[in-house]
Amino acid sequence: MNNKPEIKIGIVAVSRDCFPESLSVNRRKALVDAYTKKYGADDIYECPICIVESEIHMVQALEDVKKAGCNALVVYLGNFGPEISETLLAKHFEGPKMFIAAAEESGNDLVQGRGDAYCGMLNASYNLQLRNIKAYIPEYPVGNAEECADMIHEFVPIAKAVYALNNLKIISFGPRPLNFLACNAPIKQLYNIGVEIEENSELDLFEAFNKHAGDERIPALVKEMEEELGAGNKKPEILPKLAQYELTLKDWVEEHKGYRKYVALTGKCWPAFQTQFGFVPCYVNSRLTAQGIPVSCEVDIYGTLSEFIGTVVSDDIVTLLDINNSVPNDMYEEEIKGKYNYTQKDTFMGFHCGNTASSKLTSCEMKYQMIMARNLPEEVTQGTLEGDIVPGDITFFRLQSTADNKLRAYIAHGEVLPVATRSFGSIGVFAIPEMGRFYRHVLIEGGFPHHGAVAFGHWGKALFEVFKYIGVPVNEIGYNQPAGVRYPTENPWG
Question: 431 pairs with which residues across the strands?
Fold first, then answer.
């Protein structure tokens, strides 16, 4: 199943009829040439029918980009631009859209060669607000051909995420577990951002699982799991049940995604799951996430939504971890202090039972779930994938609906340190600059739950724009403030 979109961006140039049309024609050509030279032509389409000067041109351009299969749009102001027609184009195009403007080329051509798109962008933005149209506008949206090409390239992951959310269904199984009210968030905001949800009972899932007993595909899937685990295959006896469960989920996705193109899953993994299914779902969750179908634990609907956004934006595997425990003093002194430029309060451990993909672990072993085994027979807690998370840059983030049904988010850049965790589960030693203050004044103050999504690499810039585009107020997007910049709730006397 292809669970991530491919984006084709239609580039439509616009022109105000009292400005030279040739400016928009030539500047559009230069822009497309610059983009193709640097990034290739696979994900863009140059609308050749017309330069949009009127509402009739707008309809012609709209039909052309639709016919070409474009699912994202760039409105390019080659000159001042027709504020009504260009914003109507954005209004009637159903995918994500972006506005950019051409810079002037030469001080020797500021009479017939002056386009005034710098001015036109102001009117375009005002008209977008008048019509309640969402559009991405870069930090500085005016540039030459090469600069505008770079802006469009930065728009690609944003457009992918926005388009994907408008075609996403989240499938859940079971209510949130006891003492996990933090994962119980209002679903109204899902509908507001274009996401569908299908909520099911654990009993529905258990019935479907039992119907897959003896499925002829199980042996081949077991072999695939054995090859993935290699020497880490410490619980071979549990693999047939895990394969049966994976097939159950995949078949459910195909049978229930309906008219939606993309799916994310979330399930209740305890306390009755182990005793009835006879295993824990962690390894299967990791495998599906690696295949581009994020699965969160503990029916964390906004957790899997966050994972899905990270998967699309980064075009890579993500994981979902507890912001779990502090790094002990002795471990910090021995392994981190003096080697890395972080205080102890900048560090913490991100952990989950065993849901991180094998390719994102330095090594992996199939084990039993130690925490659950404290209250249950060990044999029904098999199925976790344990190992230290690979070192490198990460983005810790989450999109959340608050108890009073408002969208809120956070984003923080950091890294996983190459420090052995000496612990269990899928786990890593994380470092985020000024994490202690971020923990107190964003995570705690903002009422965020313990789960955070982790994207590998630094993706904060794109995530910030995605969150803005889908309607998260900018003052509700928290990030780790640098030292010396006080949070609104931070005591000024320290």
Answer: 347, 415
